[in-house]
Queue: 3 jobs
Job 1
Amino acid sequence: MDEQLQQAKNLAADGMNALRAGNGQAASAAFTRAIELGWPGADVWVTLSFAKSLLGDMSGRIQALQKAVELEPSSVRARLHLGQALVGAGETDAARAAFREGLQGVPGLANRSSEIDQLIAAAESFLGPEARPEKTPHPLDDFARDHNVGAHPDDGLFSQSLDFLMGRSVPYTSRPTRYLYPGLPSRQFYPASAFDWAGPLAAKTEDIRSELQSLLERQTAEPDQFSPYVEAGGREGGTGSHPLLDNPDWSAFYLVKQGVRQDANIALCPKTMAAIDAIGADATPAPATSVLFSLLAPGASIPAHHGMLNTRLICHLPLILPGQCGFRVGNETREWTDGEVFIFDDTIEHEAWNRSERPRYVLIFEIWHPELSPRQRQLVSELFALAGDNPPGA
């Protein structure tokens, strides 16, 4: 290897180290320079796309992946990553094409890494039945049928375990972006029946929906009541860019915003706030919890991402469902159902979309992770309070 290529190789290695450290700027600079020095192949462009993603540069991420596909059209890895990037950008038709083309190359793979398995699972989840119209028969299908697996409400996790064994799905784990409390279960969805407050809250759906509809009627006269969920300088948007930064396609009307009750808004929706308050201390997890009506505009999508901390769970109460809306957490995709509370771990990769022609509205709030004891809750709360509602070092 000549001196220039050796330098390029070293820079690529520096870029990987920067990626592992979460330093998108250093990683991007290293990969770009390695490419300029002639480091070959598609993989360096894929890793450059990871750096662009860390920086919130979604356009740059897509361009890097398109270059990877151009250099190596047969790269399953590049095509499936491109599909995910296009989903995040709301380019669903292009994403569908990229996923289909990537999956076509899967049978020819000599080896499949866990990364490839997760990419395949995400592509198949997005494409739905068209990705795998017929499942390859497996002896465990007979086991599941003989034992009537799926007939009992508690069978969900066992069914997933069979899918893992048969290679039809891959596990997703909790990956909080700011704070990890070790030992907590990594579960995608939690059954609402496990929470005493879920039934009474669901019973208030009509009252809550009525307040939302009144709010939407006022929206004509006061159009600024909903604001972009991802705000510049905010907790979700940070100081960098984000594909939905200051974008009203994903908007919020807050009753509680990062721990601060919005009294004027609560006055417009008193029954909604009373229903949340009735849950009690479970609905006040640290740090700086929020309660909001969430709007997802027609044709909009929320790209795959991970939440900040695994000491809380996120709850959705669906209110206005136009159809053609979906929600994926890990390897499980669901549609919202009227009057059904969704409870999920947002530190597992998740995304949402609205492919209808009308807005979708859900009520969103947070609860403490049920595995945390009162003592653990207290310690976590005091830790965040010490750092101004951010974990030290975050």
Note: The CA atoms of residues 325 and 354 lie 4 Å apart.
Job 2
Amino acid sequence: MSPDAEGPLHVAMLCPYDLSSPGGVQGQALGLASSLRRAGHRVTLVAPDRSEPSGTWRGDLLVAGHPVGLRANGSVAPVALSPQAARRAAEAAAEADVVHLHEPFAPVLGYGCLVRGRTPMVGTFHRAGGGGLYRALSPLARWAAGRLGVRCCVSEAARATLAQAIGHLEVEVLFNGVEAERFAAAEPWPAEGPTVLFVGRHEPRKGLAVLLEAVEQLDPAPTVWIAGRGPETPTLQARYPAGPRRAWLGVVDDEQLARRLAGADVLCAPSLGGESFGVVLLEAMAAGTAVVASDLEGYRAAAAGHARLVPAGDPAALAVALAGALAEVGTPAGQARRSAASAHAQGWSMDHLAERYVGHYRRLVAARPRPGAEVA
């Protein structure tokens, strides 16, 4: 039965990536689900999760498939590849009023919905750069995109990548949401002296090696907190061992991340490419922390002039920017810059994003033929 025009909706939200692994798409799916629930809607979240057997229900989460690592876009995507995972996801989605597919072309969770689903579907595309696979699968991708009632991208960079596959089909550019209030209210993690934070998977495209080389050029050197883990961790730890000014934190939970962001003087995002947006930049701004990042399209769009941006892969330029940001700590100019950045971050709230999607959900549900309706 279709809900009334203003009543609560049942949304099936599909995330193709392992929820027990940190990642931008996972964070968006979880955050959006939380905002929708706070607004009174029911959300069934469907995703792979290596911490539970496939087919397990954990509250409103259906674990669909066991994730395996699949190389894509300079990273390793933890996705489910079994047909049973797609079938479970499609069955769960059939019970909802509307289906929200994150990264619809990622294998394989949403494929069952795309092939045989009858429930109205919204697709959000996050990927930017590395569109070779998109181009190769263009006819199939165009068909799949045509099955979506609404197509959204998180940034212009993501839209440009998607356009390589689907051509001129209509796409709306929205944004990635930020739980700004949570980061603004976080208790700062204690720090001794000037501190720079890195958050991300330790793989070449995230640029951690560039940051560590840049910090070596600073005198005096700041403390560096390094959150995350990845294939580069052992090599970089051997080259830059832990010490009084360097802490390898491993993967941190949401609470510690918020506190580290609030406690650091600078968040550094030295990625080399492949970034469709800059959620962590906005999270840092919300926490009152200065941002230094690579000058990438996705980061530029998110920062909107509130971060120091430098050429990607340039340790010398990064060192200069870090020194400038650290020198501003505690000064009136630095405080004014951080206050403006914090106000900017508030405009990207997850609740505001949820409202935008609910408008799309209601429009699709209202247009869906009612069961048993006669066609004149």
Note: Residues 153 and 341 are 24 Å apart (CA to CA).
Job 3
Amino acid sequence: MPTYDYLCNHCGHRFEEFQNINDDPIRLCPICENESVRRLISPGNGFIFKGSGFYTTDYRSESYKKDKEKAEKSANPESNSSESKKKEKSKPTKMAAKS
């Protein structure tokens, strides 16, 4: 059941009420007993989704990430060949020993 925020327009009293979603809004102020209470729109609490499958990038296993990288590499063979050429160029070479 959600918690609703209320404000009395007459005395300014602000309060929360734990109600069923189907219940009618409260109209009577618990302090001044005037019927000028209105329900406020509150930001509420955020949802926290835990477990697999809620987000495509969050909470993924390492094996899934590795499989996805392999699939991306096989889908773009041009980038793989250019990356391997870059790696070859950047490899240090052994210098001939001076005698």
Note: Helices lie at 62-75, 77-90.
